What we know:
By secondary structure, this protein is α/β, with parallel strands linked by helices. 49% of the residues lie in helices and 12% in strands. It folds into two domains: 2-228, Spore Coat Polysaccharide Biosynthesis Protein SpsA, Chain A, CATH 3.90.550.10; 233-301.
Amino acid sequence: MNISLVIPVYNEADALPHLHQAIHAALDPAPDCCWEVVYVNDGSRDDSQRILDQLAGSDPQHTRVVELRRNFGQTAAIAAGIDYAVGEVIVLLDADLQNDPADIPMMMDLIEQGYDVVSGWRQKRKDTFLTRTLPSRLANGLISWVTGVHLHDYGCTLKAYRREVITGFRLYGEMHRFIPAYANSVGARMIEVPVHHHPRRYGKTKYGIGRTVKVVLDLFTVKFLMSYANKPIYLFGGAGFFLIAISTVLLFFLMVRRLWLQISVLQSPLFQVGVMFMIMGFQSILMGLIAELLVRTYHESQDKPTYTLRKVLRPETAQDDTTQG
């Protein structure tokens, strides 16, 4: 199996030599495994680039190094690594040695069994509970509820993907953690497995509580892209009809009150609210129609299909019959 390990690197000079040794120890015993590791230096300010140059020089058969001009963030580094990887299977891995490369052969066995995505689950996580584990659990629950893809650990970088299920979209913001949800939207077969997790031994953590806020904001984009990207009229039109329905109820109430109780319609603030909701409803429907035109332009101008294929079977007998007919 042709495997590419994609590892974003930011100020991990002390961990890199040990990580490279651990990768060799995990993958060298596999006789039928052809692998490479793609290190992406995401603007490190320590000696990470020098260490990566040494690793590439001493192990050119397995090592590829991509150096970004500045720090673009983990998601951009992962996207760059995927672009330059050549493997049929992409394995994402952190550079801090908290993920264990020894879990990779087990994940490859599951890929060979027919799964498209194997997601790691840090069941026994070795992080601070209040600042790391608890916010992560809350975020995992929220992401699972919104996307409908129920995983215990979206934040675990250690995941294995078949290339074809992760190359149809671009990654922005902090969206690398949502890759399983994207893969599920194109029909990927997915499984989650417990993996080892170790305390950080080198360097300092780059994660903070503020990152959770970014994840929640990105979740709005992910939900829209997964549920309404191809039919935005369902979102904007639904919201428009809802606003128009509220407006109709308010205006009808004001009309009945005017006829029965002789109370002026214009003196009530509900009249302004009802008119505003009516206008907003029509505007929302019009926005949905404009979005529909943009979606069609996007798909048709780039010849993008609205479906994804797993495989096409074309038996020889069927081809012969078609030719004779």
